[in-house]
Design goal:
Length: 172
């Protein structure tokens, strides 16, 4: 793997207290944010070869909205181990992948996703992106890494994109 994107699921609804956490849907804001991230990824050519997605509804729905912006389908695997995973579990899942996919996206949950991103970000990281990522890793935020290995501090964070950054950009 040469590129890794870590995407936190988009904003989900707490409106139905009877609904299990696993089954919570996206809010209107979450659906819009996921579509913005997908459009950005397509525009910049950040198209993954493989998507590893938590099977929780909010993560599946996020990935559906993101990937709908792509011209071609992406191989997608729904991985139960991602749901509420610790950072070490996320890294173990990524390390177990074959070398074939050059670009991987993982759609998951905090706090594990944010902690995993912080573990990976090494000295070659873009300092502005790193500062924004360590400040807060909000819903539908995307951290993009150039990967040498999946060891701690051995990937370079190249980009950190939040939906609010995209919504405030003037149209091009």
């Amino acid at each position: 793997m040469k590129t890794l994107c870590l995407l936190r699921h988009a904003k989900s609804s707490w409106d139905d207290p009877a609904l299990d956490d696993f089954d919570r849907p996206l809010t209107k804001r979450g659906r819009k944010a996921a579509a913005l991230i997908g459009a950005l990824m397509a525009e910049r050519g950040w198209l993954p070869d493989l998507a590893l997605v938590s099977p929780a509804r909010r993560a599946r729905d996020t990935w559906e909205r993101v990937s709908s912006a792509f011209a071609a389908p992406v191989e997608t695997r729904f991985e139960p181990a991602i749901y509420m995973a610790a950072p070490e579990d996320i890294l173990a899942l990524l390390r177990a992948l074959p070398d074939a996919p050059r670009s991987v996206i993982l759609v998951g949950h905090n706090p594990g996703l944010e902690q995993c991103a912080a573990l990976l970000a090494g000295p070659g990281s873009d300092q502005r992106a790193l500062a924004r990522m360590t400040e807060k890793f909000p819903t539908a935020a995307l951290a993009r890494f150039d990967v040498t290995t999946l060891a701690a501090d051995d990937a370079a964070l190249t980009d950190f994109v939040r939906p609010r950054d995209l919504a405030s950009e003037p149209p091009s």
